[in-house]
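Anyone opening a protein record will find just a pair of labelled lines. A complete record is shown below as an example.
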Amino acid sequence: MASAAAVSTPAVPQPELASPVPLPPAETTRDQKPPAPAADETPHIALLLPLDSKVFGRHAEAVKNGFLAAAKVQGGGAALPVRAYAVGDEPRATVETYIKALAAGAKLVVGPLTRNGVTAVVESAAALVPTLVLNVPEGRIASPPGIYVLSLQIEAEARQVAQRAWQDGFRKAVTINGDTPLLARIHQAFVEEFTRLGGAHVIAYAFTPEPEGLTRIKRAVDTGTVDMAFLALDFTRARLARPYFGSLPVYATSQVHPGAAGPLAGFDLAGVRFLDMPWLLQPDHPAVMVYSRDRRDDIELDRFYALGIDAFRIALALLAGKAETEIDGVTGRLTLGGDRQFTRGLTAAQFSDGKLTVVRERP
């Protein structure tokens, strides 16, 4: 689900936060009115997550735990209490729960997490208070005023990898892509961005675990017609493919980051450059160290825990009626765009001598 709920990288100190800027007030349509106060209304932050989902329940629980961990560290006396609302997989029920949270006094909503849940809320016109959704809606739906987007969308990450490769001076790419929908989306996003920047996508290969097929890729690489490779692959596939690219610079997304897989995996992926969040690459960074860790040996759930931390930090800014133009977040450098989507500036890293090395930014 990393990206996705498509359902789909000792650190250099980050820049100080820019001055806060006011957020526009949430707007309503001519026929909309805020819900009437209920007798038991209590002002609170509503955390709307698919905690009852068989597919996404564990991811939702990780987000909730991260959100509450950040509330414990940063909430203080000024923050509203947090109330979690469990939803399942049905979009209509998600909207009904959203409306129920408003009637109960929610002053800000964080969630939904799944793409179909976000799409349902965006299309419903029910968002009468500031709302931070945790995925992107389907298609090209324009988010109504008052809705903000923070996500782990893998396509945005792949586009950022393309930008990094271009900034590093590479212009002619060979790509290798896997056979899953997630890997196909990664491949498409990289190619679209790399060519938009002016790069040439010279040739694409479908991944095969067979040595004969990988050897054909090696022969093509050895012709010298490309100056870089992009692996739209996960850790297991990338580990098999990497040796066939020789000394050619190789880029990938965080899908190749295995977590605590040991030095052998690092040697197999020698030289591969990728982007990931500070939470996983810079544990001794001051912005990361202040938060407790969710003690699970699952790198995917760890990412969603970090998403919960940053969601709380943005929630505080929204409650105050302002948003920092840049937040030194644990999921990346968070910048609010004109479309009310937060861009995550990721940390660059590469495998070297069996270890992960954070790549220092150019001055």
User: Anything to note?
Assistant: The chain has eleven helices and 17 strands. The longest helix spans residues 299-319. Residues 1-35 have pLDDT under 50 and may be disordered.
